[in-house]
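wait is this the right file?? whatever heres the structure
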């Protein structure tokens, strides 16, 4: 098959968006008659390529081989600032033109990366103010990448200037289909900048947010420790001081740092929209909802979300933490990232800009994917809503900090273990058909991810081991075990599409969110939450009412006391509705006093033995469940699964551990993706006869899914 031209890609995407009644993005709207070529659309399947690191004599061969692999596109140039602007204001795009031309000749569309993640040495030498200052007050040094301050005006001006020169040179180049702004914003050696430019930027941002110092002082409670500000210029950044910073200031600083990075991106976006109106524009970040930057804000104005996916890192991380390898753990981590990536733009398709294809890492290697795993991860992306996948990377660098980061070609340009597997996968996906690729991921459950909660808990965890991300991940793991389809939503999102909404560690609660939860429950939904509920206002002040603050009526309980758990362990005994062995309490116990709710579990130890640990309240035609104890993983999974059942969630198929089942729908048609994340064959019972789209075979009664195998059933 030939690769799509930009117009064909846009045409396909147009069909995708309209089929799903989605907002048509700018890059589709900008092309007249895009609707006339919907049949030409196909999934983007490409590779991350570095012509800047590859002898020019090899570009032709590389492009021919990529075309032979069936690739439709590459992403290039995102770290090539030094080659494009060898000295200030002197631009060299000849090499990039030649690379784009050769790739285009082989029907490979180009996504151009703007290079602001890696300023060249001339820039660092001339403008040393651009370096980030970390949380210890130390200024980073050049020599790596991503060592810059997002607020620095010179860095922003020069980043915009090089991107604008690229846009000017390539706006009419038919080989270019879109743009990636920067690369993995905030994911450097330091996650926050605390320099003087950021302090000034923070003070300006606060002026806009609060208008007056009176409002700011009230919101933060600055009378404490005599911190009342009489001029915005007095407001510090939360660097080391004698004692902890004001929690309101610290939370606002997290918000500001996210804003600074988003506005840095939007400067380039505004320019690209103006200069390249028919190109799509995105940026890439990790899919997991890390709290270094608010991805919902980051992707809000971009055409689609794009994430990087390295499953081997989960394996490496578990080994580093002394945890046993877990197929479910790895699969769950990837799924959470994909579900978040799809959800940040309200269910729109996303792209995997970097997909692990070999051993990956800078100073150490993540594991080599087993035979079948790269294909499996590709289908997992598609199952969760990906419309494009770029494998990282084409050839493997023999120099630089990522020499260990294996691509599709090895260091000696021999083919990697995944080469043929990727070629086969690309062929299969192109044959799969648009109907499946353009169908919609089906979710009846939602998991709330709230940046404010993540930041506020990090500032004042309450228990040294309490971490928002860990809570969200373990709840996602517990819910996904029930295979129901999950969106990962913002705290103030519309809850009406869901039967059940989970919100672990909802520590910060806005009035708007509380009202939406109340209305959701009254209307028949089930809301499930846990300890530390509604403790804080959005200004990070503790509420003046009994806990759980704004949700007392909805939950039908008052928190009589809250107790962090260290050596004095506690446990809970479940009522028949949640029948199971006694559960252990890990980090925390909220002691619940029902004011209308029924008790589903009680504490068994300590001075609160016999008091309520889990409750369920009926409000209108819905239910609200409060899990006061930090339950062990098995108990949590059982409880959340039982509650899902009570909420009317039906599993499409019963599957053994390590097998994932995901559903996509279009009208009255549905497709079930069966993904075996284990190395051994697994048998899955099926209630009716299914046809496998990948093989054309029909299956009745049961289906044996081979190790790392994939089935797309209809
Ligand atoms: Zn800074």
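ok assuming it is, sequence goes like this
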């Amino acid at each position: 098959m030939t690769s799509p031209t930009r117009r064909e890609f846009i045409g396909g995407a147009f069909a995708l968006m309209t089929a799903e009644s989605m907002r048509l993005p700018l890059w589709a709207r900008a092309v007249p008659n895009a609707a006339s070529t919907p049949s030409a659309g196909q999934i983007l399947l490409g590779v991350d390529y570095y012509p800047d690191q590859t002898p020019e004599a090899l570009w032709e061969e590389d492009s021919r081989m990529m075309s032979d692999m069936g690739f439709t596109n590459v992403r290039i140039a995102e770290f090539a600032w030094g080659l494009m602007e060898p000295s200030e204001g002197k631009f060299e795009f000849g090499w990039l033109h030649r690379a784009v031309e050769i790739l285009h000749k082989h029907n490979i569309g180009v996504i151009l990366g703007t290079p602001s993640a890696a300023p060249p040495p001339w820039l660092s030498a001339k403008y040393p103010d651009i370096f980030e200052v970390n949380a210890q007050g130390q200024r980073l040094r050049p020599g790596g990448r991503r060592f810059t301050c997002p607020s620095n005006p010179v860095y922003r001006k020069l980043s915009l200037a090089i991107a604008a020169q690229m846009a000017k040179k390539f706006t009419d180049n038919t080989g270019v289909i879109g743009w990636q702004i920067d690369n993995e914003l905030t994911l450097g050696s330091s996650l926050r900048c605390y320099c003087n430019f950021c302090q000034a930027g923070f003070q300006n941002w606060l002026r806009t947010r609060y208008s007056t110092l009176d409002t700011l002082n009230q919101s933060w409670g600055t009378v404490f420790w005599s911190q009342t500000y009489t001029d915005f210029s007095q407001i510090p950044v939360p660097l080391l001081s004698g004692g902890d910073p004001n929690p309101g200031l610290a939370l606002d600083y997290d918000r500001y740092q996210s804003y600074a990075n988003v506005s840095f991106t939007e400067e380039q976006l505004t320019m690209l929209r103006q200069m390249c109106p028919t190109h799509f524009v995105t940026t890439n970040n990790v899919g997991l909802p890390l709290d270094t930057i608010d991805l919902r804000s980051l992707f809000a104005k971009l055409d689609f979300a794009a994430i990087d996916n390295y499953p081997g890192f989960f394996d490496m991380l578990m080994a580093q933490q002394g945890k046993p390898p877990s197929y479910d753990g790895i699969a769950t981590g990837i799924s959470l990232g994909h579900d978040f990536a799809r959800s940040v733009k309200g269910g729109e398709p996303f792209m995997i800009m970097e997909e692990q294809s070999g051993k990956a890492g800078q100073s150490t290697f993540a594991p080599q994917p087993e035979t079948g795993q790269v294909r499996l991860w590709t289908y997992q992306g598609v199952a969760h809503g990906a419309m494009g996948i770029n494998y990282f990377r084409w050839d493997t660098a023999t120099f630089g900090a990522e020499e260990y980061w294996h691509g599709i070609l090895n260091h000696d340009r021999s083919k990697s273990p995944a080469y043929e597997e990727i070629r086969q996968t690309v062929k299969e996906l192109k044959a799969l058909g648009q109907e499946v690729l353009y169908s919609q991921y089906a979710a009846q459950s939602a998991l709330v991810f709230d940046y404010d909660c993540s930041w506020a808990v990090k500032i004042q965890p309450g228990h040294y081991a309490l971490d928002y991300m860990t809570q969200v991940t373990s709840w996602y793991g517990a819910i996904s075990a029930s295979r129901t389809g999950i969106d990962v939503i913002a705290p103030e999102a519309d809850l009406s599409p869901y039967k059940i909404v989970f919100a672990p560690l909802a520590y910060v609660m806005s009035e708007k969110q509380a009202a939406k939860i109340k209305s959701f429950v009254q209307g028949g939904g089930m809301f499930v939450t846990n300890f530390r509920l509604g403790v804080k206002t959005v200004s990070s002040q503790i509420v003046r009412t009994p806990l759980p603050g704004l949700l007392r009526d909805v939950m039908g309980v008052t928190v009589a006391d809250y107790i962090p758990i260290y050596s004095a362990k506690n446990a809970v005994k479940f009522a028949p509705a949640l029948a199971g062995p006694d559960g252990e309490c890990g980090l925390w116990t909220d002691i619940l006093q029902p004011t209308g709710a029924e008790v589903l579990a009680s504490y068994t130890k300590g001075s609160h033995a016999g008091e309520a640990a889990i409750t369920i309240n009926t409000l209108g035609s819905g239910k609200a469940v409060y899990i006061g104890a930090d339950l062990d993983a098995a108990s949590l999974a059982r409880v959340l699964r039982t509650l899902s059942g009570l909420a009317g969630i039906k599993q499409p198929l019963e599957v053994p551990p390590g097998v994932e089942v995901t559903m996509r729908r279009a009208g009255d048609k549905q497709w079930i993706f069966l993904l075996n994340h284990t190395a051994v064959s697994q048998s899955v019972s099926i209630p009716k006869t299914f046809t496998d789209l990948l093989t054309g075979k029909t299956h009745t009664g049961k289906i044996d899914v081979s190790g790392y195998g994939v089935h797309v059933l209809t």
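The radius of gyration is 26 Å. so i think its the right one actually
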